[in-house]
Amino acid sequence: MSHAQPLAGQTVLVTGSSGGIGASIAERLSAEGARPIIHYGRDGRGAEALLGKLGGNGLIVQADLSSPDGAFTLWRDALAAAGRIDAVANNAGIRTEISVDADPADWRAAWQKEFQVNFFAAADLCKEALVHFRQNGGGRIINMASRAGQRGYTADAMPYGATKAALINLTKSIARSFGRDGVIAVAIAPGWVRTDMAEDFVAKYGKEAAVGDIPIGEMAETEEIAELVAFLLRPSQASVNGATFDVNGGSYIR
Ligand code: NAD
């Protein structure tokens, strides 16, 4: 293992990597020697542009994770393209606003879609990855949760926090249950990170609403999250298994 390329030889599936945090993760992993599998839902051009930026080091796979079998299709196609997968970063996610005043049908649809994309798709990928990892001497799972899953969330986006809490709990179960199979599972819980998701919120509620309770006064940059993901994939890091990494500028200290 080279120090400049600590992730050499690893193939890592990164969901939702056509933009935002996912694209930064794919770039960083590639810079450290890994081959990212760039998954996208709708932004095929973004995925192609990213692959170009990586000098062609990677594979592209499309799948709609809002469909119940989307994650299984993604896993099948990714494995067929890559031959072997060493790690999965469940990064794809949505944040839907729905008020308690909404019609029951809209309320229920919002909760179901949020759980489908943010949690069920990730759980399905974990299932497939665990079976694959057990047959191949191990692997790693990194689940992109959120501070919202730790401390609770705002009235208008309660499904988001609930999906992320579930993802943290799933990560802990995997860490406890599959560590002996060589599987390392960790969750990352960012506060606000400067991406489209955050810019949408700032456009609607103002910057102060996002950073007012962050002691360092700023959102995280996507590169900070990407650097952490790369670190957590280093073969030298095994005892991190089961941990939830807070990346929130001190806005939630536990
Ligand atoms: P983003 O909106 O820029 O990216 C989300 C990604 O998920 C996109 O690549 C998108 O294509 C993918 N995705 C969404 N719905 C999909 C679907 N149905 N099928 C396939 N792919 C789909 O957001 P981001 O800020 O980069 O978020 C990445 C992850 O980080 C998410 O899980 C998010 O919840 C989490 N997160 C973000 C912040 C933040 O402030 N930006 C904070 C905490 C956690």
Automatic annotation (TrEMBL):
InterPro entries per the UniProt record, alphabetical: NAD(P)-bd_dom_sf, SDR, SDR_fam
Record keywords: Oxidoreductase
SUPFAM superfamilies: NAD(P)-binding Rossmann-fold domains (SSF51735)
Pfam family, one: adh_short_C2
Keyword check for Signal: no
Membership in a protein family: Belongs to the short-chain dehydrogenases/reductases (SDR) family.
Organism expressing this protein natively: Rhizobium aethiopicum
Record's protein name: NAD(P)-dependent dehydrogenase (Short-subunit alcohol dehydrogenase family)
Lineage summary: Bacteria, Pseudomonadati, Pseudomonadota, Alphaproteobacteria, Hyphomicrobiales
Superkingdom classification of source: Bacteria
MF-aspect GO terms: oxidoreductase activity
Record bears the keyword Cytoplasm: no
